C-alpha cells in the first residue's frame, strides 16, 4: 500500500487490516543482540552494579509489525523512577531533573555506540 496519495487527499480514508483479520503473535527480540549487549556495558559504566532487566511493556507501539517483519525491537530509556511513584503519562507525570539528564546522556551514548 502506498500512503503518499492518501496523505495528499484528506477525503480519502486508509484502513489497514491483517491479511486474515487476526492479530499475529510477535516473536521476542533476542537478548544477545549488539544493542542489548551495548546497553548492558553502558549501564555498568554509568550505574555500576545495576542490572539490565528485560521487561515487556504494556504500552501501545508499532513494534509488533516490525517484529513480524524480522526486525528486533527494544524499548530503552535509561530513566530511573521510584516504583511507588510511577506516574508516566498521568496528569501529574514527573521525574527528577538529574534522572532526566542521566537518561538523555545514556541514550546519546547508546545510539553513538551502536551507530559506529
Automatic annotation (TrEMBL):
The keyword Transmembrane does not apply. The keyword Cell inner membrane does not apply. InterPro entries: Peptidase_M20 (IPR002933). GO terms for molecular function: hydrolase activity. It holds the Pfam family Peptidase_M20. Gene3D superfamilies: 1.10.150.900. Keywords: Hydrolase. Residues 1-30 are annotated as: Disordered. Signal peptide: none annotated. This is Peptidase M20 dimerisation domain-containing protein. It comes from Phyllobacterium brassicacearum.
